[in-house]
Amino acid sequence: MAATPAVELAPNVWRIPTFANDLVNTFAFVDDDGQVTLVDSGYRRAPRRILAALEHIGAGPRDVTRIIATHAHNDHIGGLARMRGRTGATVAIHERDAAYVREGKGPVVDRTTLGGRLVRRAPKSAPTEVDEELYDGQVLEFGGGVRVIHTPGHTPGHVALLHEPTGILITGDSIWNMFGRRTWPLKLRCTDIAMTKQTAHVLGELDYKLAAFTHGPEIRDDAREAVRGFLRVKGGAQ
Length: 238
Ligand SMILES: [Zn+2]
Ligand SMILES: [Zn+2]
What we know:
This protein has helices spanning 47-56, 74-77, 80-87, 98-103, 114-119, 193-205, 223-234, and strands at residues 7-10, 13-17, 25-30, 36-39, 64-68, 90-94, 132-134, 139-140, 146-150, 159-163, 168-170, 210-212. The protein is α/β, with parallel strands linked by helices. The protein has a single domain (7-234), classed as Ribonuclease Z/Hydroxyacylglutathione hydrolase-like (Metallo-beta-lactamase, Chain A, 4-Layer Sandwich). Helix 6 (193-205) packs antiparallel against helix 7. The termini are far apart. It binds zinc ion (2 copies). The site of one zinc ion (ZN) has 6 residues, from helix 2.
């Protein structure tokens, strides 16, 4: 059976799985006037699934006016150039990851690990224009207000997003939730492993009801406690 093209998290807020088993997710916010904002665009081949999911929720490519990227890894911006081309949407990413997108370069990888020294950079994606550079604390005007939470470490410009009207937190890659358990992201993907763990603690202090993950399904019940529990047990610098 085919996977569900889109999962409703709240009225007009959707998770779009772009890979099997909810392993990689895009999010869509639909405004009252029908304009759609996407968060992340998956791997290079994800746009086909994203466009099918949009059709499923009654939106066309031209309804997408804005694409936000949580950070510049290829599982989040691999499909960005194509989605921008198909939709004509503007592209926004935190100011510290913007150059990676424009230049089509992968963010550097933590050199304290052998893998990081060997690989040096995360895989690159096609260069894409960035129209807007985001900053910490900014409240974006879609979906009734989405707050940018700068959580650097995984990449320099990594952000989580808090949808204040519904109490949905999109953790980005600060914390993963694949295969039924919370984990830190792969070390080989982090620019600074220690900083990833340190800044994730911000997510324990925010107020939200549902935790949505770019990797893995959402937590609908006692989400904040689940995140806080993970942070307490798995630590990192406080
Ligand atoms: Zn990542
Ligand atoms: Zn990722």
